């Protein structure tokens, strides 16, 4: 008979369930425990009926570059590893502080797409330097003849007008008259998997309320419609500014709550500020 603690010690992972405006995460400390999950294990863990349930899994690892505090890895519920997650970055900062892995107010992290700075504010919210948006077709990636603020995309014999850009992950943004009636679940998956987005994409449906306020719903690559998507909120504000329809500081209302996004123009970093919440701690039996 193996004592329970031996079994727990030998074949279970500690995790923390968190969310950023309802975009929810299972967060693993990959420093104090060895975390190597297969895509199948990630899908099982993310399943909302047979697993813990989440949109993405976040993994804290030691940094590879000397000027970073941590490596920040992100996995979608479909099991694929991706290079950016804005809501997850805010939760990452709160997680490492709460876990005693860092007592810094400003944390430098590295992801597959570059480095980001996370700043924990007095009011408990987190401000993230998301880096500069990338517009070149190769960087997104997006198949097009020439780069521009807006593209035409053929979907189901309709011609859609949209922006395409990278925040370290690929995004499409469409302007809609009303997010409530926007065809998110019909068009979202078709644009996500469109052949002109060879690595698929996240799809934002943006209603412009005024020059400093938008409403946004997002169909996320590898997760479906989520209550919030931080990197698409950044992409939508950048797209709106490039269309001449938005000012530099914008409040973004998503179904799960509000983010504040700022962008001073080409070559500048996008700044995102918003909350991050802990829900519960648990153990996942391997
Ligand atoms: N679905 C995204 C990753 C998560 C992004 C989102 N949760 C955010 O807050 O930025 C992708 O495949 O690029």
Automatic annotation (TrEMBL):
Which pathway does the record list? Amino-acid biosynthesis; L-lysine biosynthesis via DAP pathway; DL-2,6-diaminopimelate from LL-2,6-diaminopimelate: step 1/1
Subunit and interaction comment: Homodimer.
Location relative to the cell: Cytoplasm
The record's comment on protein family reads: Belongs to the diaminopimelate epimerase family.
Specify the protein name: Diaminopimelate epimerase
- Annotated substrate binding lies at 23, 56, 76, 86-87, 169, 202, 220-221, 230-231
* Marked site (Could be important to modulate the pK values of the two catalytic cysteine residues) residue numbers: 171, 220
| E.C. no | 5.1.1.7
């Amino acid at each position: 008979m193996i004592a329970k603690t031996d079994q727990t010690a030998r074949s279970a992972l500690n995790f923390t369930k968190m969310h950023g405006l309802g975009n929810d995460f299972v967060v693993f400390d990959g420093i104090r425990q060895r975390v190597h999950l297969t895509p199948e294990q990630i899908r099982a863990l993310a399943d909302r009926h047979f697993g813990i349930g989440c949109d993405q899994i976040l993994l804290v690892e030691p940094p590879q570059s000397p000027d970073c505090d941590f490596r920040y890895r992100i996995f979608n519920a479909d099991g694929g590893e991706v290079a950016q997650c804005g809501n997850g970055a805010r939760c990452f900062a709160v997680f490492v502080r709460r876990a005693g892995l860092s007592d810094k107010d400003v944390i430098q992290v590295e992801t597959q797409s570059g480095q980001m700075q996370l700043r924990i504010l007095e009011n408990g919210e987190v401000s993230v330097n998301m880096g500069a948006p990338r517009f070149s077709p190769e960087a997104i990636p997006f198949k097009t003849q020439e780069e521009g603020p807006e593209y035409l995309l053929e979907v189901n014999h309709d011609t859609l007008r949209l922006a395409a850009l990278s925040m370290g992950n690929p995004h499409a943004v469409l302007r809609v008259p009303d997010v409530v009636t926007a065809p998110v679940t019909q068009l979202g998956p078709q644009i996500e998997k469109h052949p002109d987005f060879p690595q698929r994409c996240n799809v934002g449906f943006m209603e412009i309320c005024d020059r400093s306020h938008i409403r946004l719903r997002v169909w996320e690559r590898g997760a479906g419609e989520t209550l919030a998507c931080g990197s698409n909120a950044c992409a939508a504000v950048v797209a709106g500014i490039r269309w001449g329809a938005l000012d530099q500081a914008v409040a973004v209302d998503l179904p799960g709550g509000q983010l504040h996004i700022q962008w001073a123009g080409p070559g500048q970093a996008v700044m995102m500020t918003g909350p991050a919440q802990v829900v519960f701690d648990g153990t996942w039996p391997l």
